[in-house]
Amino acid sequence: RAYVELFDDAPRRRERAEERRGVYGSRRFGPPGRRATVLLLDTRSFRDDYLLPSWNVGSWCFGIPVLGRLAPLAAAALRLVSGLLDLPRRADFGGDVLGEAQWAWLERELLDARDSSFVVVASSVQVLTSNPTFESWAHFPKAKRRLLALLYATNASGVALLSGDGHPAGVAAPAPGPVCGDVVEVTSSGLTHAMSTSAVTKLLFPPLLRYFHAHRPEPGAYYADPNFGRLDFDWEARTMTVSALDGDGAAVL
Fold first, then answer.
1. Could you give the count of Cα atoms lying within 13 Å of 6 in the half-sphere of its Cβ?
2. What pLDDT shows up at residue 61?
3. Could you give the CA distance from residue 211 to residue 199 in angstroms, rounded to a whole number?
4. Secondary element (H or E) of residue 121
5. For position 154, what pLDDT does the model report?
6. What is the pLDDT of residues 33-53, one digit of tens each?
7. Any alpha helices (H) in 27-140, and if so which ranges?
8. Residue 110: which residues within 8 A CB-CB, separation 6 or more?
9. What are residue 231's DSSP bridge partners?
């Protein structure tokens, strides 16, 4: 409801919100042969709790002086411990991210997008990261495998994953394979708050970014200052370029 009220200039979103839960949706741009499909996932409305309930720490402490400000760091610490010990995989954790109705919608949309030259799948949290500190699909291993397998099974063309939330920009491009195909992920965040804008995060998180780099094509493929993302399509060359740009509009990734 809050989402619909904020974007009250989009009647279609209001109508959809009345018909179903969640704020996921799709957009198609361009004619056949020059078409791009953008799929916007809702990774909040239906997501299960983490194996270690890191998200709950913030909600429990919200509004409490001092504790409220420290809660995100406590939540990040819980996620870090969970990731370092590989608890979700070892516990065979089956937590979901999208919910069955959204999974079914995503499969239909990916099948419908086979007439598109490019498919952009937007997730509010990172999908391919190896850094357990941030909220990500990595804490929901079964859901992550399901997402990548669905992208592969539906044979979507020119897939790029776009994500945010972590507060650096970054690129994730694991080696191609039968699970994730040639999927590449680009993260852009944030416009106003990035890792370098807080003294605490500037001190604590860069070492973690450098340590957890297995998902990056190059260890230094990240940018910690305020940034935003851009998509560029070259229909003659049939290429899509995904970039992260700094506050002056210069490409940093």
1. 4
2. 64
3. 20
4. strand 118-123
5. 87
6. 899 999 999 999 999 988 887
7. 54-61, 67-84, 87-90, 100-112
8. 39, 119, 150, 151, 154, 156
9. 242
Euclidean distance between CA atoms 99 and 143, whole angstroms: 10
* Tens-place pLDDT, residues 228-246: 999 999 999 999 999 999 9
Question: Of 26, 184, 41, 179, nearest to 116 (Cα)?
Answer: 26
Contacts of 1 (CB under 8 A, 6+ apart): 17
CA terminus-to-terminus distance, the chain: 35
Name residue 239's beta-bridge partners: 234
On the 0-12 / 13-18 / 19+ scale of CB atoms within 10 A, 1 is exposed
Residues 6+ apart with CB under 8 A from 28: 35, 36, 37, 38, 113, 116
Most confident of 140-144, 162-166, 173-177: 140-144
Alpha helices in 113-198 (DSSP H): 141-153
For 16, counting Cβ atoms within 10 Å of its Cβ (0-12 exposed, 13-18 middle, 19+ buried), the class is: middle
Give which of 31, 33, 43 is closest to 158, Cα–Cα.
33
